[in-house]
Structures
1.
Amino acid sequence: MAKLKFFDCNCSVGRVPYPLIMDIPNVDGLRREMETAGIEEALVYHTVARDAGPHLGNKLLEEALAGQEGLYPCWVVLPHHTGEMPPPGKLLKIMEEKNVRAVRMYPTNNFHSFSMADWNVGELLCSLAEARVPLMLDIEIVWWETLQTILDKYPGLPVIATSVSYRHNRFSYPLFERYDNLHVETSRYFGAETVEEVVNRYGAHHILFGTSMPQYTGTSAISLISYAAISREDKEVIAGGTLRTLLKEALS
Amino acid sequence: MTDYFDRIHEGLPIDDVEIIDMHAHLGPYFNMHIPSMDADGMIIMMDQLGIDKTVLSATPGLCGDMVLGNNMTIDAIRSHRGRMYGACIVNGNYPELSLDELERCFTEEPDMVIVKTHPILAKCKMDDYRMQGICKWVADRKLMLLVHTWLDQDPYGSQDQLTRMAKDYPDISWIMGHSGGPYGTTHGIELAADLPNVMFDITMSMCPARQIEFLVDTVGADRVLFGTDNPFIDPKPQMGRIFLADISNEDRMKIVSWNARRYVDFG
């Protein structure tokens, strides 16, 4: 049987202030982790965009990924009110020019200090939804109630929740039932037979292959999917099928 | 790329080597839904992956009643003799009952093979005076004691407390559960590098890049054990971690089987 082609939705480049074990700050290190695990493509953000400033980090990302086949940029964005980011319309135009088809946001006062309420991010979310640009949100930052509000208000906005863990099924199942635009990535999605249960109840498109490389290894998420007791077709959907579709539809 | 790359990617059981899971559980846990959590379901998952033997402690004994948990463990052992083995749960808040449980479980059930404690769930420090009698019992029998560790600053079961206890009880073979946690592995290794009676298990829900390679490079493969947390978490991710890790196949065998056999008589 041909090897599954893995497209990782959750990778980064850049040094982090609290490395788990290894300092793996650059594209070469990420490439080595991808090769060890057997991962062909990745959607990548820059840690500086999260940890220091989106503008600086997104620029560093552009430089880091220049000429890198199989690595695609994901920007970290802010609402435009302070002038740190262009207004949504202009932002999307720049993203289109630079082939950036997914974004991440880090709200709340512990991260980038803005609210996910409509008075703050409404215009931006509305534009992202219209352009069908996938939005990645760390569930440990936004938590489930905020996520539900976004999913409900913007049904055209594909939302990818990261850091969803084995402890979150009681939060995520009712949302899978209601919202087709909710996706979770697999870097910590390790509930025993949770992948199987979600695929069978709600559909494989809700799960996207993700690893959090190079802070985490990609090898664990690989075997979570390769050994899952689901059909080959469903594995292909998770391994990269849905992500490829989402990125193709974005900004088109 | 390791010799196991194709089989891991095809999802085939690794059945040409023995795999012993030294850190597993069983049953429900209060703050999460576990789709498959009984012993029969665990056996299906073990077969799917090629795991031969599992040493487990039933979760209700860690977050609730240790007697109930130990009874569940014994039932699982007896339902799946030769595949499932027990880690007898002790709790420092119940020093006398813990000693009774150790006597009962190790007398009644020959496949109860190691001891398990979870200080932060019990909210009893692992170096609490009430743990001393329990540790003496374990040391007298030269058994393994698996201790949950995760956070650097865990007030109940830190890597620092574990290594202090390992010095006080050199006859116990201590297992630093989860290798001290994703953020605590480096600290755990610093503390335990010169303590040959401290082992590290690779069980993880957040799997740091190159952690297994780091353990092998620093403390050596002789001190690393395979574990999954099955079914508290899915055992599948740990298969990719160990069988795709950039280590020699001999070191891999030590981790998945040989080291466990050095300490435990699996019959």
2.
Amino acid sequence: MTDRRFPGISDVVTQESINAYAELSGDYNPLHVDLEIAAASEFGGTIAHGPISFQSLFRSLTEGLDVEALPAGSSVSVTYRAPVRPGDAVTARIVRPADESAADGALAASCVNQDGVTVLSGSVLLPPA
Amino acid sequence: MTSRDVDQKEHMTDTLSNIAFDDLVEDDRKGPYVEQITADLAGRLAGPIGQPHDVALAPPAVFPVIFLKALRASMGGIPAGSVLAKQELRFGEPVPVGESVRTTTWIGEKYVRRERPYVVIRFDVRRADGALAVSGSKTIMWPTGPGDQA
């Protein structure tokens, strides 16, 4: 069941946003920023830095909670499932697990691209309100 | 080639390390590395990446970046050919924009699963007064395994 507190934020990842992330992080791995080298790689083109696929998830959390920073005691744990490429629209989904008794209040989180492919999945734990 | 291209090429060599799996030492702490949470860094990571926003506190997306910067300082960055597998972040005290934070990194664990080598790199980010702001880990599928040369 979707947790209605958290909007389904979508971010379109572009080469410009990847370049901006490289500039901010200092991570200029050619797989992210060099079109020629990336094209010759197993990925066939540039891919986004892993944490870029986090962005819509973080935005959904902060907008849903109406905060700038996540509250103390929050945690986010994700597994990266698939690469994100320029042009992908990544949408965050935060849901309550079907079996709530199995969780310690953790929410299930995922980010999917425009084709429905899950690019990351994991869990979010928020402190009691 | 644009000036941005030139700038990127200049950064590439020190973005990628070539540390062999066998040379990684567990619990060998590196740092702390000091980094200021600037208004530019926080603002461009508060919304869609790169688009400036006016914020007073560091948004969560700042901390993977702070960790990447510390990783570059501690081990020259992530090795070429590595694959990011997992990431975990646990949030403590919020950090006001303008404050400098101190990041420590260390190898938490390294193991082989299904014939693939994995390295768990842990980190913590502390505020100027020492309070924990964020801790977490990044699990990387390493490009070399036990016995391999980098």
